Every structure is written in structure tokens, then in C-alpha cells.
């Protein structure tokens, strides 16, 4: 399936922002900016790994989407091992039936349960036609001798979006908590 024009535009803009942070006064390329505080033991390490993962994902967002096996070989091992084991075909079918029966609000809640994520389920939310958020910028907090937090900013296509895949990105990279600025 092909991403619509707006998603494709956001993917290309994200590609540039992953290389170089936007100017301080740059206007969001989506409808706005959502901010999350990421807590971890080594913010520099977690942020670098997350950015590496997103560069790989973004590069394949304008090409043929790879198979799960190919993703496993391309993505950093440290990231891949942060996911639950893949489901059997029968379990996947049952999960899909349960998912399709949920309302949008129930899907928001369900997607926030980080312990249930497999790599394939995470990747499904990063497929170009499913993307709801795009990397904007990240800032390490300047706290002397305490490299344990950073701020991630994403631009979104809607004012409400499913942030579970965003949170799982950082948790699979080693973060222990990802909290929306709205929840602080």
C-alpha cells in the first residue's frame, strides 16, 4: 500500500530533521508538536539508538517495505531484543480479530501497553500508510552528572494520535519511562 501525499511529505521532511535539527522558530510541518519526556539511565545512548532506528525506518519508508526477517537483520540487535517474541499465526489471527472489535479509544488504551509489543506489531505502526507521528527534534536535559532524561518532539497529523509505537521506540532502546508533556 502506498502512503498518501501528506504522509510521504512528512516522511521526507522527517528524513531531513533526522540529519539536522530544525531551526528554533521553525513551524511544525504537521498540525502541531507533541512532546514527551524520556527517562533512562543513559540519555545519550538511548537517544542515539532511537535516532539510528528511525533513520533506518525512514529510509525504507519510500521503498518496498522489508519483510520481518529483513528488518531483524537491519535494525540494531539491542533494539530488536527489546520486544516480546512474535506470535504464532493462530495467536496473530485472534489478536487481529480482537483488535478490529475495539473502538478507537480502546485501541489508544491497548496500544499504550508496552509489554505486549512484538517487533512486527511495532513495525506495522511505522509503515508509511499508518504513520501518525514524525520525528521533529530531541533535546538532552542539561543536568550536571545526571544524563537520565531528554525531551523528544514529534509532529503529528492529528491532534490526538496513538503514541504507543513512539513510546515503545524509546523503551526498546533502553528507556524505562516515556511520559507525554500533557501528562506532567
Describe it:
This protein has helices spanning about 5-20, 45-60, 70-75, 75-80, 90-100, 105-110, 120-125, 165-170; strands spanning about 30-40, 135-140, 150-155, 175-180. By secondary structure, it is an alpha+beta fold. The chain has one domain (about 5-20, about 30-184). Strands 2-3-1-4 form a four-stranded antiparallel β-sheet. Helix 1 crosses helix 2. The longest helix is centred in the first third of the chain and has 17 residues, at about 45-60. It starts with a helix and ends with a strand.
What descriptors fit this protein?
8 helices, alpha+beta, 184 residues, 4 strands
Q: What number of structural domains do the residues give?
A: 1
> Major sheet, described briefly?
4 strands, antiparallel
**Strand and helix order:** HEHHHHHHEEHE
Number of DSSP helices? 8
* Overall average residue pLDDT: 89
Envelope shape:
globular
Task: Write down how many β-strands occur, each being a DSSP E stretch of 2 or more residues.
Answer: 4
**Beta-strand content:** 15-25%
Distance between the amino and carboxyl termini:
37 Å
Helical amount:
40-55%
Radius of gyration: 16 Å
Name the structural class. alpha+beta
The stretches of 5 or more residues where confidence is low (pLDDT under 50) are none
Please state how the strands of the largest beta sheet are arranged side by side: 2-3-1-4
Amino acid at each position: 500500500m502506498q502512503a498518501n501525499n501528506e504522509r510521504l511529505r512528512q516522511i521526507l521532511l522527517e528524513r531531513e530533521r533526522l540529519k539536522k535539527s530544525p531551526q528554533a522558530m521553525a513551524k511544525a510541518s504537521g498540525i502541531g508538536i507533541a512532546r514527551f519526556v524520556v527517562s533512562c539511565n543513559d540519555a545519550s545512548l538511548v537517544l542515539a539508538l532511537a535516532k539510528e532506528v528511525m533513520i533506518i525506518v525512514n529510509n525504507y519508508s519510500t521503498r518496498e517495505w522489508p519483510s520481518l526477517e529483513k528488518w531483524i537483520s537491519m535494525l540494531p540487535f539491542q533494539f530488536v531484543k527489546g520486544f516480546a517474541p512474535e506470535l504464532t499465526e493462530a495467536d496473530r489471527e485472534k489478536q487481529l480479530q480482537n483488535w478490529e472489535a475495539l473502538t478507537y479509544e480502546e485501541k489508544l488504551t491497548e496500544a499504550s501497553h508496552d509489554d505486549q509489543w512484538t517487533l512486527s506489531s511495532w513495525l506495522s505502526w511505522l509503515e508509511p500508510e499508518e504513520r501518525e507521528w514524525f520525528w521533529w527534534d530531541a533535546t538532552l536535559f542539561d543536568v550536571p552528572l545526571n544524563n537520565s532524561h531528554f525531551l523528544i518532539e514529534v509532529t503529528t497529523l492529528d491532534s490526538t494520535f496513538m503514541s504507543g509505537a513512539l513510546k515503545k521506540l524509546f523503551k526498546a532502546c533502553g528507556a524505562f519511562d516515556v511520559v507525554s508533556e500533557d501528562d506532567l
